[in-house]
Amino acid sequence: MSRIDFFLSLLTIVCLYSMIRGGEPERRVVLILIGGFVMSIIATTPSDEMYMRPEIGVFIVDLAMLFGFAILALSAERYWTIWMCSMQVIQVMSHIPKMIIPELLPQAYYMIVAFWAYPMLIVLAIGTYRHQKRLRLFGADRSWSDFSSLPR
Description:
Blueprint (H helix, E strand, L loop, with lengths): L2 H19 L2 H20 L12 H20 L4 H14 L2 H5 L5 H10 L1 H22 L14
Helix pairs in contact: 1-2, 1-7, 2-3, 3-4, 4-7
């Protein structure tokens, strides 16, 4: 199994699990992740020049995802959304080395940019599991903070 096949399998399993068993914050994270994944594929340079220079389109997609995660982290009644936002900050910052050092190997740049998707999926799966656990223990699990402007 190639690393791309592994990632797509993990993405599919975690996103399906979170869409089916998660609360509203988990479902919104799934939408951000899937949207970001699709937009990153569209924004990436054609394969013969992939990651040879800074991927500005992917950088913009990562910034948009960071904005979505930040709004979610400020509104959701979940601690793990802060972790997602933090990992996305690192994801955005991972484009900077290629901007500063154009000689950076494309494989190294790709690995730096792609790495954080894996821990983010793991955090989402754990967050969904903990949501289910709170539902079993307490019968309910608030999705949004009292001061949240997101629709309930």
